[in-house]
């Protein structure tokens, strides 16, 4: 057994949770803030058999890999010269997964 | 040493915490949501000596084992035919415990 | 690799987090309550190479070791004899660190 602690950006968290449910991967969600990832993030704890670890990693990679996206910055409202607002390229997503050995998993 | 991560239904959390306090088992409570257990749940982290693991498991089993309970469903308010509301049997409680090896526990 | 779970009093949490950032130690902060430490506390999860564990422990010790402090108790407002309020010595701070083996740390 392994414990996987998955830390992902909030914007990818719901999509990842849906994938876990669809693939029958039991998880618990923690509220976390800052640190590893720059914006708000979510942490999942997953207890899983060794032979399913790669499957979970593949799901996480698919949903939350770091990627580029275009964003239109908010219009300048501070009274300066009115510039047109061009879309800029930003990096979103990304995740960290920590894999720990687990001695036992009990259900009561 | 072991790290025990205990995930239990909110309705059993206070009772379990009282048992931990009474038995001098130090724990930290995390806010968690959904996943392993269907309704709201609470997570405890416990750092404990190997020889006390069974004692902790026994406490958890006693307080939060899955069990049946009768619940009267809410009365139908949507204007349909007014049915009598019979108690139904539902399953409540239940817990998951993950046991991980711990290399060291420091107090500063 | 190691997983360090650090539980410290809220009053020391921001200072510790600044030290982590300054020393390039990546961490994730969890909201936790009660248990190990008497007042409100904060939990950090840190994935770190074995050879940096001592460095992290030294930072934690420096910031959050248990120490004595003088506090003036609030004035008695319940209508009794009005006593002068003398400063009393209390114990503040303190932290717990749990060190667990980590098999893998992935970045996606
Ligand atoms: Ni295993
Ligand atoms: Ni041990
Ligand atoms: Ni290692």
TrEMBL record, chains A, B, C:
- Classification via Gene3D superfamilies: 3.30.70.120
**What is the name of the protein in this document?**
Protein from nitrogen regulatory protein P-II (GLNB) family
Lineage: superkingdom: Bacteria
- Extract the InterPro entries matched here: CdAMP_rec, N-reg_PII-like_a/b, N-reg_PII/ATP_PRibTrfase_C
Q: Taxonomy-wise, where does this protein's organism fall, top ranks first? A: Bacteria, Bacillati, Bacillota, Bacilli, Lactobacillales
